[in-house]
Every structure is written in C-alpha cells, then in structure tokens.
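Exam revision sheet. Question 4 asks you to relate a sequence to its structure. Input first:
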Amino acid sequence: MQQVFKNIKGDRLIWAIAALLAIFSFLPVYSAASNLAYVGESTNTFSFFVKHFMHLFLGFTIMYGVHKVPYRYFRGLSMIMIPIVFVLLVLTIMQGTTIGGASASRWIRIPIVGMSFQTSTLASVVLMVYVARYLSKIKDKKITFKESILPLWVPVFAILALILPSNFSTTAIIFLMVVVLMFLGGYPVRYLGMIFAAGLVGLVFFVMIAKLSTGALHVKVTTWENRIINYANGEDTEADYQIEKAKIAIASGELTGVGPGKSTQKNFLPQSSSDFIFAIIIEEYGLIGGLFLMVLYMWLLFRIVIVSQKSDTMFGKLLALGVGLPIVFQAMINMAVAVELFPVTGQTLPLISSGGTSIWMTCLAIGIILSVSSKREEIKKEEEHKEEEVNPLEILSETI
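Answer key, structure tokens:
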C-alpha cells in the first residue's frame, strides 16, 4: 500500500476531494439500502454496502491506472474510441429495452462478468476528449464552419442521435458541455449559434417523428412532454411525488439533520440511493451536510480550472476542462432536481450515488485530469533538477 501512495502523482487536492466524496458516500448509500432491500425482497442490506465498496474500489483502480498514462496518448485514443463507442451505442439501441412501454435502452450487458454498463456515460467522456483534441489541432488555424462539419460535428451529432431516444437529459447535458468547451476553445461564436439552432431543429424533427409513430419512441417523447408540462403547471405526477418526498426530507433535516441512518423519506423515495440521494443526505446530515458537499464540488471545480491553467499545452488545458466540467455540472443538476429547480432528469450525484457505471466514468474523467496535472509536476521537477545541476563556477562567471 505504501508503494501505491508513493506512485500517486498529480494534484493531491483532487485526490483528497475524490477520496472525501467516496468516503462520505458510504453512510448515505448504506442508509438508503434498507429501501433497496425492501424493494428487492431481501433483508441483507450489507450486500449493498459491499457492492458500493466494490464499485468505488474498481473506480479508484481505474483512476490510478489512467492517471499514470501520459495525457498526450488520449489524443490518439479518442480517435480509436469514437467508432467503438458508436458501435456500443448501436448495440444498446438494438436491445430494444422498454420500461412502461417507453424506450429505455441505456445499458448493455457484459456476459463475461455478468454486469450491465451504461454506454452513454462512456460516450460522454470519449466525446469530450475528442472535441478537446480537435480544438487543440485547429488552435493556430483559421477554421471555417464547412471544414469542421465532417471531422467534428458529424461524430458529435451521430453519437447524440444514438443517445437521445432513451436518455434526453444526458443528450442535452453532453450537447451543452460540447458547446461550452467549443466556446472556451475559441471556436467562432457565430458558428456555435448555428450549431445550437441545428440542435434545436434536430430535436424538434425527432419529436415530430416520434409523435407520429406508435411504438416505444412515442411513449418516451410523450413522457418527456408530460413531465415538462406538469413541472411548469405544478400538477400531481409520479415525478412530483418524488420531488414532494425529497422536499419533505430536506425540510426535515433542518440545520444538523436527524442523524446517520435515521432518514424516513428513504422508505418512500424510489431512487433514494441514486437520483435523490442528496435529499437523503440533507435529511440525515442537515444543511451543514448539504453545504459540505457543495463546497467539495466547488473545490473540485476550482482545482480543475487550476490544472487547466497550469497545463503547458492547449490539448491539456481543454482536456482537463472537457472531462472535468461535466462532473460538477451533473452534481449541480442532481442537487437542483432535489429542490425542484429542475424537472426530474435521472442524473446521479458523482462519486456519491450508488451505481457502477457512473462511478467508473467519473473516476476515469478524474484520472485524465490527474494525468494532465502530473505532467506539469514532471516538468517542474525536471526544471528543479536542472537548476541543481548547474555548475557554481558558471554562475560565478556570469555574475562577474
């Protein structure tokens, strides 16, 4: 174990923040496990604790392994992974999974290990790396919109089109993060306006086709439509039931909370260990616990920006922001849903909520950020080593 700690590189504060989030997640997830056990007709809540531990252990293993890879390699890997992700998304859609008659093909099962994997989360990370690569490639060139359509926007919209039928919120978040990264990378704003308009037109076109159909897509789009209308009108729906219980949990927590494991609303919230775990955290740990989490995510955002600013290459700067900003943005959306600032989206709280794919992809993204920061440390050590090797006689001769 000591050897592992000696080999840890990169921003130590990011390592600390990730560890604090992971450690903090155990008690809320274990507390909410009573509801999961009840739904699964099992009395063994400790199995959910062990499962969450294994997800985090594998996640931090991924983080450790990825942070040892020089970040320049991710430039080429993104080119290889884009077609692989495309194939995985196609295979996911071909499964034709439905829930309540609506399209819900989000997971692909891995027969060898007997686990399910949400392909859209991998697609999100790969796509952000790919966009960072493209922006760094054209940084010294005057690019036209026409020249960027095939190498950039075709892969972006192809992947988004495959995610959209089963997961609108994830599609919207990825699209928004791509636009933000393009803006930060210096892509012309007038072109981004055209892309944003094209995205809206594509969404409207998709909704029209789905409404004219009679299958799972029609049910899915109708669900989106009803959820937005009911959210705006404040009507009573299943989603409003979840929000109502979440707000009761938040109100019950007051300043210091009711105590670890003493939440009552976890027994009524269907997604108490994932989508609405923030409400359970505030109920058990109060406003103090909620603010503590928010501070950790804001601290993570600050460190991501620092790593980006200190990177010696444009690719490193954009890579850190590209994979880091979605983590914090997803956390803010999860919290906003719990207090009814957003409609129910199904986004988890990174490194806190239960669920293997979310944890693994968050750890993958953090590992990439740490890889960028570790390169800066190597350059700094090399500079210090060169200074130590300078001949004192040379310094004396220069001063004379």
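Marking note for examiners. The first helix runs from residue 2 to 6.
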